[in-house]
């Protein structure tokens, strides 16, 4: 058996173990986390804090909204904002890894229900990159399920999402803004391993900063705990993608150049602050985790800054980019930069 075959076999076995753990999480977490959340947010007087399981087949009620944060949004508004992002990531990875998107049962909810434009199975020739794609896809689908369970009947529907590969698609416009392609050209994230990793790099770093930025504004301890769990998962994903790009960039330096260009484009969109980094080595060290040099912590973005990047617009708008008709929920507008 070759080293490569052994590596693939080991990764496949790891995926099976992850699926078993995820099945347990879905069965237990939906009752324990959501049930406890309903008890906490309803201000009940149950001293033992034991969750009351939701009867089988009964829709989970919408949790009682918690106090608004400094931006005037509730914790549930923040969770629904996060769900928009998880829809986007889950659809991209599910298509890239498996050739199919989210199940129809995971797309319904409040607000205008949308559709996915584009999406297809990626041409991944590197077995390790292909395993990364499958692993992240499973996690992102689980995040959608978890947030929808936590929000109950208050969960938003999936908005319109553009993950296509045309000359005018969101991916091509993002690549053009970064200088990776010229006018009229197409960036296809499904074409090969490198393009897939660059597209994932675009999403993952934004996901980490989104959850990092939201943490301070979440009042309810249980919801904050759930968000911190997804923040940890997104951080693992981002490190995985950044590591793969760095390693491949050692023999293909243009890949590292591309991460720097995407990083600069994101920074140009989200305002004057320098809160983004590519994977270029600094003083012979890799740069897998972009962080505040003072505290060694990852950067955070406001919801408006996140939407600047998602909409591919540095102005205050409510539609564009990967969400052609905007996102669903109370938090809709990008920031004015």
UniProtKB/TrEMBL annotation:
It comes from the Bacteria. Residues 42-71 are annotated as: Disordered. Residues 52-64 have a biased composition (Pro residues). Coiled coil: none annotated. InterPro entries: Ferritin-like_SF, Pigment-catalase-like. SUPFAM superfamilies: Ferritin-like. Pfam families: Ferritin_2 (PF13668). This is Ferritin-like domain-containing protein. It comes from Sphingomonas hankookensis.
